From TrEMBL:
One of its GO terms (molecular function) is metal ion binding. It is found in: Cell membrane. This is Integrin beta. The chain crosses the membrane at residues 699-720. Residues 35-84 form the PSI domain. Residues 1-26 form the signal peptide.
Length: 788
C-alpha cells in the first residue's frame, strides 16, 4: 500500500480518482475559540471526539498544576503555550490507493482511509463501459398450465436471439430453468393422484409442481438450448401467484450450478403471466423459517422450497447486486402494474410488457433491455452492518457529455465513455467501547463484475507517543495494591449490582474488560450490552433503532416495541385529509388498524364491500346540510366526515372515474343526491346543492288547483252551450222564421226543459201596436217527432 499522491500517477485521470477533503482548516477553526476546549474533557479520546480540528498535548510537564481539560485545544494554541508538535495527538485523515491492482472497468479497486469522529474524506471512482461484452442470459420460465402457449413460442427464440445479439455482444451464452410454486398445500393439490400429474382431470400428462428446477447450465450451443426448450412440459398449481422470486434467488446465488461466467454481463430473464409470492406468504403452508439467501440445489432441484419462506424483496435485491445481475421481467399486460412496483425496488432491473410471448416480441424485449441497462451506469454503496450507524455516505455522479444524471446514476452512456462518482464518507462516532475499528465499504457499479473496496480505519484511541502515556484521567497509574482498592471495584459495578462487569468480564484498572463469546459481542461500561440476545427486526438487532440491554431492546426516543419496530409518531397513519386512518381506525405500531374489518389500505380508505351501500355517508351529508352547504362552514364537519367533500349543482359521474350515485332524505322530506368515489386510494364525496322537495302542503295545493280548474272548465262549457242554443232559436232580425220547423236527430238532445214559449209577430197593420200570440207547448217524450 502506497500513497496515491506518489504512485498513482500512471492512471490518466489520477487527480480525479482520489482526493482528500479536510473538514476544517486551522484558520477557519481559529474563529471558534471554544470549539475544542471544554471543562468536561478529561481524556485524549474525549478531546479528539470533539472534532478533527482538535489536538491533545501529552507532554508530561505541560502547564504544571493545570487540569486535564487545558490539554485539549487547537494545535496553534497548544503550540503557543509550549507544546511542541511531537507531543500532540491529533486527528489524522489519510487516503491511500493500492496501485498494484489493475482493472478495465472500475478503478481504483482498493482504497484505504483513516478517519476520526467528525472527519470526512472523498474519493472518486471511475467506471468505464466497454464496447462489447460477453453476455450470459438465463431464461427462468413459469411452466404453470396457463403458460402452455407462451412456452411453445419460446421454442423458436434461441437461434434468432443469438443472431440478433451478435450486433451487441461478443459472445452469447444461454441457460434455462423452470418454476411453478412451492409443492405444498395450499399452493398445490396434494391428493395422491394430483401430485405426480396435476393435470389428470384434463387427461393431459403434466410434470409435478416444483419451486425451481435448473434445467440447462450456461452454454454457447444454441441447438442444445432449443432442444431443451422443446422437451419442456407444463405443470399446475392451485393459487394465482407463483414462486418467481424464490426461483430468481436460486438462479442468482447458485453460481457454480448455473455456470455464470465471471467476465460476462449477466441477464436474468423472468417470464410469467402471474404475480409472485412475497416474504411471509409461506405462513399459509406453515413455513415460518426466513430465507437464508443461500443456494439449496440438489440434483438441480431446489430442496429448500418446502422448508424456507419466500425471500424478501430486500434480500433478492442484495443478492442480485452482490452477484452482478441485471434482471429482465417479461410479463403480460395484465400484470404490468404489479411488476412495475417491484422493479422500482430492484436496482438494475427492466420491465417489458408483452401482449403475447411471441418470438419476435421476446427478442426485441431482450435486445432493448440489454441496451437500456448497459447505457445506465449506477453505483451502490454499502457499509458493514456493524458500523452502518456510525458513518454516512454521499454519492455525486459526474456524467459524460450526452448523458443525464439522475440520483446516483448516469443514463444514456455510450460504449467507451467514462463515468465518475464522487463518494464522500464521514464518521459520526466511535464504537461504544471507544476502541479503534476497521470497517469495509463496498462500491458496486450495478451489473458490473468489478467493484471498489474502501477500507476505513477509525482512530478512536490515542497512542500518545512511543511511551503511550497520554497523562489523562483515563490511565490507571497505580500499582497492584492500588488496583485492589475498593473504589476501583465499585467503578466496575452497575448501580444495584453486587458483581463486577455484570458477570461477563473482568475489572482491570477500574475498568471492565468484557469477555469474548461465539454468540456475538459483549460491550458497555459494565459489559451489560450485547448484540445477540434481543429480538431482530428487518435483519437487524432491535431493528437498528435501539440497543440490547439484559435481553431487552432499549429503543431510541422515536421508537417502541419489543424489537423497536413501532414508531411513536402517528405521521405514517395520517391520511391526506389530516385525520388518523381517515377517521376509520386507530394507529397501532405506525400502521392503521381499521375499525371495520371490511376496510383495508394504508389509511383504511379502501372498502370494496362498502361500495354497495350509501348509508355510511348519510351522517356526513346531514352534517353539511345542517351547515348550509357552504365551503365556509364545511370545516365544522371535519370530525364527522373522513372523505374529501365538495358541492355541485348537479352530481354526475366524471369521465375516467367510478362514481356511486346515492340519495339522502333530509328531515324536511327533501331528497339530496350525492355521489362517492374511492379512486386513487382516497374517498371523495360530491353533494348536490339542489334538493328535490315534495312535502304534504305542496300536494294539497296541487290538488285544490286541479279541482278549481276542472270546475271553471265546466262552467265555461255550460255557458257556451246555452249561448249557442239561444242563437239558433233567433233570426238575425229578432223575428221568428216562417214555415214549418223540422227537428233533426241532433236537435232532440237539446230540447230545453221549459214547456212554454212566447213568439212576437210584428205586422205593418195596425202600425200603432204589435200583436202578441202565446203558444202553449206541452212536454213530450224525446222519442216523438216535433210538430210545429
Amino acid at each position: 500500500m502506497t500513497s496515491w499522491f506518489r504512485t498513482y500517477g500512471s492512471f490518466p485521470l489520477c487527480l480525479l480518482l482520489c482526493c482528500v477533503v479536510v473538514a476544517v482548516s486551522a484558520e477557519a477553526s481559529g474563529a471558534v475559540d471554544s470549539a475544542c476546549w471544554s471543562p468536561s474533557v478529561t481524556s485524549c479520546a474525549d478531546c479528539l471526539r470533539r472534532g478533527p480540528q482538535c489536538a491533545w498535548c501529552f507532554k508530561e510537564d505541560f502547564l504544571d498544576g493545570a487540569g486535564p481539560s487545558q490539554r485539549c485545544d487547537l494545535p496553534v494554541k497548544l503550540f503557543r503555550r509550549g507544546c511542541d508538535q511531537e507531543f500532540m495527538e491529533q486527528s489524522e485523515i489519510k487516503v491511500e490507493v493500492n496501485a498494484t491492482t489493475s482493472s478495465t472497468q472500475v478503478s481504483p479497486q482498493d482504497i484505504s482511509i483513516t478517519l476520526r469522529p467528525g472527519s470526512e474524506a472523498s474519493v472518486v471512482v471511475a467506471v468505464k463501459q466497454l464496447e462489447r461484452y460477453p453476455v450470459d442470459l438465463y431464461c427462468l420460465v413459469d411452466v404453470s398450465a396457463s403458460m402452455q402457449e407462451n412456452l411453445d413460442h419460446l421454442k423458436t427464440v434461441g437461434v434468432a436471439l443469438s443472431l440478433r445479439m451478435t450486433e451487441h455482444s461478443s459472445d452469447l451464452w444461454l441457460g434455462f430453468g423452470s418454476f411453478v410454486d412451492k409443492p405444498v398445500s395450499p399452493y398445490i393439490n396434494v391428493h395422491p393422484s394430483k401430485i405426480n400429474n396435476p393435470c389428470s382431470d384434463y387427461e393431459i400428462q403434466c410434470r409435478p409442481a416444483h419451486g425451481f428446477h435448473h434445467v440447462l447450465s450456461m452454454t454457447g450451443n444454441v441447438s442444445e438450448f432449443t432442444r431443451v426448450i422443446k422437451s419442456q412440459r407444463i405443470s399446475g398449481n392451485m393459487d394465482t401467484p407463483e414462486g418467481g422470486l424464490d426461483a430468481m434467488m436460486q438462479a442468482a446465488v447458485c453460481q457454480r450450478s448455473v455456470g455464470w461466467r465471471p467476465e460476462a454481463k449477466r441477464l436474468l430473464l423472468l417470464m410469467t403471466d402471474q404475480p409472485s409470492h412475497l416474504a411471509l406468504d409461506s405462513r399459509l403452508a406453515g413455513i415460518v423459517t426466513p430465507h437464508d439467501g443461500l443456494c439449496h440445489l440438489e440434483n438441480n432441484v431446489y430442496t429448500g422450497s418446502t422448508r424456507m419462506d419466500h425471500p424478501s424483496v430486500g434480500q433478492l435485491s442484495d443478492k442480485l447486486l452482490e452477484n452482478h445481475m441485471h434482471s429482465i421481467f417479461a410479463v403480460e399486460k395484465q400484470q404490468y402494474q404489479w411488476y412495475k412496483e417491484l422493479v422500482r425496488l430492484l436496482p438494475g432491473s427492466y420491465l417489458g410488457k408483452l401482449g403475447l410471448f411471441q418470438a419476435p416480441n421476446l427478442i426485441e424485449l431482450v435486445v432493448d433491455a440489454y441496451k437500456r441497462l448497459l447505457s445506465e451506469v449506477a453505483v451502490s454503496v454499502s457499509v458493514e452492518d456493524k458500523a452502518v450507524s456510525r458513518y454516512w455516505v454521499s454519492v455525486s455522479p459526474l456524467c459524460p457529455n450526452g448523458s443525464t444524471a439522475k440520483d446516483q446514476s448516469c443514463s444514456g452512456v455510450q460504449p467507451g465513455q467514462m463515468v465518475y462518482f464522487n463518494i464522500t464518507i464521514g464518521m459520526h462516532s466511535c464504537p461504544d467501547d471507544a476502541e479503534d475499528e476497521d470497517v469495509t465499504v463496498l462500491v458496486r457499479p450495478v451489473g458490473y463484475n468489478e467493484s471498489t473496496v474502501i477500507r476505513i480505519h477509525s482512530k478512536c484511541g490515542c497512542s500518545c507517543g512511543p511511551m503511550r502515556r497520554c497523562n489523562d484521567d483515563s490511565q490507571c497509574r497505580g500499582s497492584a495494591d492500588q488496583e485492589q482498592r475498593p473504589d476501583h471495584g465499585l467503578n466496575c459495578r452497575a448501580d444495584g449490582s453486587d458483581v463486577d462487569c455484570s458477570g461477563r468480564g473482568a475489572c482491570e484498572c477500574g475498568r471492565c474488560v468484557c469477555e469474548q463469546t461465539r454468540l456475538g459481542t459483549v460491550y458497555g461500561k459494565y459489559c451489560e450490552i450485547d448484540d445477540f440476545s434481543c429480538p431482530y427486526e428487518g435483519g437487524l438487532l432491535c431493528g437498528g433503532r435501539g440497543v440490547c440491554v439484559s435481553g431487552e431492546c432499549v429503543c431510541e426516543d422515536d421508537w417502541t416495541g419489543d424489537s423497536c419496530g413501532c414508531p411513536v409518531s402517528t405521521a405514517n397513519c395520517q391520511s391526506a385529509n389530516g385525520l388518523l386512518c381517515s377517521g376509520l381506525g386507530r394507529c397501532t405500531c405506525g400502521k392503521c388498524v381499521c375499525d371495520d374489518p371490511r376496510r383495508s389500505g394504508d389509511f383504511c380508505e379502501r372498502c370494496p364491500a362498502c361500495q354497495s351501500t350509501c348509508q355510511s355517508y348519510w351522517k356526513c351529508v346531514d352534517c353539511h346540510l345542517s351547515h348550509g352547504l357552504t365551503q365556509k362552514e364545511a370545516g365544522h364537519c371535519n370530525n364527522t366526515c373522513a372523505p374529501l367533500v365538495g358541492y355541485m349543482d348537479v352530481v354526475s359521474g366524471q369521465a375516467g372515474e367510478m362514481w356511486i350515485q346515492c340519495m339522502y332524505i333530509s328531515k324536511d322530506s327533501c331528497r339530496y343526491r350525492f355521489q362517492t368515489s374511492s379512486q386513487s386510494g382516497q374517498t371523495q364525496l360530491h353533494i348536490s346543492t339542489r334538493p328535490e322537495c315534495a312535502g304534504n302542503s305542496r300536494l294539497v295545493g296541487t290538488f285544490l288547483s286541479v279541482c278549481a280548474l276542472t270546475l271553471l272548465c265546466g262552467l265555461v262549457v255550460v255557458a257556451v252551450s246555452r249561448l249557442l242554443l239561444q242563437k239558433r232559436g233567433l233570426s238575425p232580425g229578432g223575428a221568428a222564421e216562417d214555415g214549418p220547423y223540422h227537428c233533426t236527430g241532433k236537435d232532440l238532445s237539446f230540447i230545453p226543459a221549459t214547456n212554454e214559449k212566447t213568439v212576437t209577430y210584428r205586422r205593418d197593420c195596425p202600425p200603432d201596436r204589435p200583436m202578441e200570440m202565446h203558444i202553449q207547448v206541452p212536454k213530450m217524450p224525446l222519442g216523438d217527432h216535433w210538430q210545429c
